[in-house]
Design brief:
By secondary structure, this protein is mostly helical. Helix content is about 65%, strand content about 0%. The protein has helices at about 30-45, 60-65, 70-95, 100-125, 135-140, 160-185, 190-215, 225-230, 235-250, 255-275, 285-305, 315-325, 325-340, 355-375, 375-385, 405-410; strands at about 15, 20. It has a two-stranded antiparallel sheet with strand order 1-2.
């Protein structure tokens, strides 16, 4: 999950370093809803029963549940869109891009406080004697646990998605100097569009090539988690989100009828994919980029439009929930495990007892995410306040005369 929690329904603003208007869209609520869907799925997963871990339900509902991980693909698509949009807009407009160092710093200031707090707390509680599984801790702190079949889901299972996000944050940050250099030589708008599209297209192509290798050539087993959950396996998800950002930056705007058609097509294709996915086979991994593409079609309904958007997208409770999405997603598994250790859940079995588990996990997860947003995550925002948008340190005494002794004393 992406960690960008800024509201996405604000009007266009101009970045101080480029003067380029950056669009904001009412999509933040999707993160909160997606996080709760993941919570519900894990409640459903928890209630498997018997020696063969039979699922509680069968039929169409179960088939839909088995594709709940498409909401993780949605996280990556949204991250690609949000991360790349200001960069693509700057390239297309022919102005300088904010430095990669600043971009990475801003992402880390939002991601790290809660991530570190959860990882350190959960690891400490589950490793009460020294030295503990120190490799697990080190790999989580360095976002490299996604390369280990053993540790990828240890400490906090959902943390693997944050490691994936970190890899792409670094990649995008490293691309900024190259983009600035190449875009400065582009003589036409078409050439600048090609520059803005290069990395997104490369990610889609590389991601597809990787899946060809993984599903057809590698012989990787279903439990080779580092193969199926690696950054390369999710590259196409980011790529299609970034391509939507390029289309929006290019100024493509569609009428209401066309956008409605894209929404229906995207959602319809998503449902069709959910019902046709060959779960349990390597071929099923191809459904992730297809989910990403279908969801991107649906998102175009909002993104390829200058507003006003449907008022329900800015409904205060939805906006509030969206702002807690990262916290809910990262916190809910430790809550799930803790409540399970207290024996509070119904006995696993067939039927609908998973709804009770999901509710028992969701309520404290939302409350803890709210506390985190006001404390731990707020600390990251305060760190951001120490830096100007161009990356220079903020001068808190710039209102004073340089000759004033009080300035130098401060």
């Amino acid at each position: 999950m992406s960690t960008t929690q800024a509201r996405t329904d604000a009007p266009p603003v101009s970045t101080p370093t480029t003067g380029t208007p950056v669009r904001r869209y009412p999509l933040g609520w999707l993160r909160g809803v997606a996080a709760l869907v993941v919570v519900v799925f894990h409640g459903y997963q928890h209630q498997r029963y018997g020696d063969t871990y039979q699922w509680p339900l069968t039929g169409t509902i179960h088939e839909l549940f088995m594709s709940a991980d498409l909401f993780v693909d949605l996280f990556f698509v949204l991250s690609g869109l949000v991360l790349w949009l200001p960069i693509a807009q700057a390239v297309v407009d022919g102005v300088g891009i904010r430095s990669g160092r600043v971009l990475l710093y801003r992402r880390m200031a939002r991601l790290l406080p809660l991530y570190l707090a959860v990882v350190l707390l959960v690891w400490s509680l589950t490793n009460p004697t020294a030295p503990g599984h120190w490799v697990d801790l080190v790999t989580h702190l360095t976002f490299t646990h996604v390369y280990s079949d053993t540790y990828i889901f240890w400490t906090n299972g959902p943390a693997w998605t944050l490691a994936i996000e970190f890899h792409f944050y670094v990649l995008v940050a490293l691309s900024v100097p190259v983009l600035n250099r190449v875009a400065a030589r582009a003589a036409t708008r078409r050439q600048r569009l090609a520059v803005a599209s290069a990395l997104p297209v490369a990610l889609v192509v590389v991601g597809a090539a990787y899946l060809v290798w993984a599903t057809l050539l590698s012989g990787a087993a279903a439990d080779n988690w580092s193969v199926w959950f690696s950054p390369l396996a999710k590259a196409a998800d980011f790529g299609v989100g970034m391509l939507l950002a390029v289309v929006a930056a290019a100024g493509v705007r569609l009428g209401s009828a066309v956008r409605a058609g894209l929404l229906v097509a995207g959602l319809g294709l998503t449902v069709a994919l959910m019902l046709s996915r060959p779960v349990g086979t390597p071929l099923a991994e191809w459904w992730h980029p297809m989910y990403a593409a279908a969801l991107t079609l649906a998102l175009a309904h909002v993104v390829l439009h200058d507003g006003p958007w449907a008022r329900w997208m800015s409904w205060a409770p939805l906006v509030w929930l969206g702002g807690l999405g990262y916290g809910i997603y990262l916190i809910h598994e430790p809550v799930l495990r803790f409540l399970g250790s207290l024996g509070l859940y119904p006995e696993p079995g067939p039927g609908w007892s998973w709804l009770v588990v999901s509710a028992l996990v969701a309520v404290p997860s939302v409350l803890l995410a709210w506390v985190s947003a006001r404390t731990v995550e707020a600390a990251g925002l305060r760190l951001l306040a120490t830096m100007r948008p161009d990356g220079s340190p903020r001068d808190y005494y710039d209102h004073l005369d340089p000759r004033d002794p009080a300035r130098s004393a401060g």
